[in-house]
């Protein structure tokens, strides 16, 4: 049974509160909506309008400890629940997410800035992980192994690892939480979710829906922290022996800090870090298809996606055609603005540091001789965080943008001659999350797919994520996989059981 409980906390903006019953302005610990111990708060702004959405608690080490206490206590009983119970819990949560999809999408657009159409797509995508893991919960099977002697039975049991901390970024405030929490709950773990300081409201709304879905107190906790408290909170999580799993999505830099910090008490770590995806167009490719995919793959979430195409490589014979068609589509298809407005396709960048970084990369490249085909500037009349869709060619290794993850609406197109050369260039980087290529040559498809040093590949396809697939990278893009049947692995301990001296 779903409870109809819908606890409203005091919200600063009465207008938004009336519109969004799921807009919460407190943390969620042990089944209760709570302020920070020291009552500290911080404001969260809508990046498109700069209007303050509301304030949320600026939680610190003490609050983190309370959340870990709650998750630890809840784990004592939750670990023993049946798979069917957890499957039903997740299904209830999923049903409520579907029921509240439109409200979740609007909250997401308010805090992240992406267009409502993109938010709706993210909610559908994010919900699908909870649905998927509600099904996977009942398929976490152990194993019976062939015994070494005839009086033994050898087994592998799979047990929940314990309390899991889920630290998530601002670019997919819904899906990055559901992808982790769905798997953790399916496995029988309890969790502490720390959403990004830029987008805490979607995570808080999900906590309300989890409560409504009947989650026992302490199974899901959400703590909100401002930028200045995040490192301390992260360290408190890593230092606490009771937390057995840290699952993080975010920058490579912070991922490395957490990886190091988790070494001391050897936690399980799942890291989904930065990418720098190559997008290769071979001369056999269907160019119109490649251009359409490039538009989505580059500009989804205004380029702020870790699997965004970051380096376009186009074979010499089709370079002109691809570049001019892509430029035309960029100028025709993209409408920037407040994501709540109907015709807007793309929103602003998330924050000042982000737009400053994007602009710096573009200006550095142009000043060193890159060719600017369009954009290359801020659009202050739309708002402080809007940047014009930008296309650059003639980029070389002396320019910072050559090897950096751009995380903005800036496309860089390189020209190449041979397959060997482009593979060398594409792989000549310390990260390897996603990669894409376009070819109609079957042998080339298998050859290139085998040689690309990434965790995920789109062949003649630019939108590859789904709950069924294993999401994750190689090299410095991270460890572990999310989604798919492998998504639960990081939340499970394998226990080998040897039953000896059986009398037959
Ligand atoms: P971005 O640069 O894209 O904002 P970050 O890696 O800084 O990505 O942030 C991703 C998540 O990690 C956010 O929830 C943020 O608050 C959190 N975070 C940032 N620094 C730390 C840290 N030192 N320890 C733990 N979490 C952190």
Secondary structure: helix percent: 25-40%
Q: How much is the average pLDDT?
A: 96
Number of helices: 14
Radius of gyration: 24 Å
- State the low-pLDDT regions, or none: 1-12
The hetero compounds bound to this protein are: adenosine-5'-diphosphate
Query: In which order are the strands of the major sheet placed?
Result: 14-15-16-13-12-18-19
Report the sheet with the most strands, covering strand number, pairing sense and barrel closure.
Answer: 7 strands, mixed
InterPro entries: Ald_DH/histidinol_DH, Ald_DH_C, Ald_DH_CS_GLU, Ald_DH_N, Aldehyde_DH_dom, Aldehyde_DH_Superfamily
Pfam family, one: Aldedh
GO molecular function: succinate-semialdehyde dehydrogenase (NAD+) activity
Domain Aldehyde dehydrogenase: 33-496
Describe the structure.
This protein has 504 residues and is an alpha/beta fold. Helices cover 37% and strands 20% of the residues. The protein has helices at 14-19, 61-78, 83-99, 101-112, 116-136, 175-187, 200-212, 230-239, 252-263, 287-299, 316-333, 352-367, 419-427, 442-451; strands at 27-29, 32-34, 41-45, 52-57, 143-145, 153-160, 163-167, 190-194, 220-222, 243-249, 268-272, 277-281, 309-315, 371-374, 390-393, 410-416, 431-432, 434-438, 456-459, 474-475, 478-479, 492-499. Helix 2 crosses helix 8 and helix 3 packs across helix 7. It is globular and about 75 Å long. The model is unreliable at 1-12 (pLDDT under 50). The structure holds adenosine-5'-diphosphate (ADP). Adenosine-5'-diphosphate (ADP) is lined by residues 167-170, 194, 196-197, 230-231, 234, 250-251, 254, 257-258. Belongs to the aldehyde dehydrogenase family.
